[in-house]
Structure of ABC transporter substrate-binding protein:
Amino acid sequence: MKSRRKLLLACCALVVPIAVNAQPAGRVRQIGVLGNAPQSGVASDLIPAFIAALRELGWNKDKEVIFEYRWADQHYERFPALARELVALNVDLIVVTSGVTATQAAKQATTSIPILAISLADPVKFGLVDSLARPGGNVTGLSQPLSNWGKFLELAHEAVVGATRIAILANPTNVEYAHYVAQNEAAAKQLGLKLLILPVASAGELGPAFETIKRAPVDALVMGAEGLFYNNLPEILERARTGRIPVIGPISLAAEMGALVSWAFDIRDVYRRAAGYADRILKGAKPSDLPIEQPTKFDMVINLRSARKLGLTVPQSLLLRADAVID
């Protein structure tokens, strides 16, 4: 009997570590994803990166967690209705991939379902959280520093020697629009630059925007950190190439695809880190107790091939600061 009891205890000891690391037993968890458009084209690996990171944390897609997607298809006015659809499904977590506008819609739709926002600009200013350290409500996630928006004008001014007139693409349907414009105007004043603000609310408005640029020649174009522009990056870069306009982009892939300079944090890494938040929330952590992270490392990529095609010479001082140079 004693030998049998020892054998039973030994078997239990072997099983315990497995049980500790397994996900909570029970129903399949639902994650609602609220975004601007399906992650395709330039951002095709972002949601897969999030799902892969969740898998590494022990969540098996379709067996332990399933996803419900709601896309606004570049029409920001649809976010409130789409957020309400996810709430009606009683999802366990809403992951927002389209910044402040979509996060506000989600927060207005529910005060109880946890909301995980990815790459969220200044959540304190826009009333989404009490503070970065203690969000205090049902919203948490990873933010992008708003104060750095003027950095793109600095890069345009330095990369294009003698540049004085800069065009900026900005989406007026984004709730960040007014503050984004104000930040750039303040930076332009400090640098002695003239701005041409181009409000673009849909892909169909890109053509007229570039016609405006053609009529009022500019020295460079800054592309705002905006999902609408990410989803239409190939068209933007092609129009800029045709018009021989240097582009400064907020995503590394922009430089890889032909922009003169990009300055950005690693958005793929942000999506992977967001999976850690989702894991903790699905295991019972409260968003109010999860501090909002900010990226600390930004990479500058310079495309010398594009510079040569544009007849530009990038200053050596800028090249020495680049994290990567495409040649």
About this structure: The radius of gyration is 23 Å. Residues 1-23 have pLDDT under 50 and may be disordered.
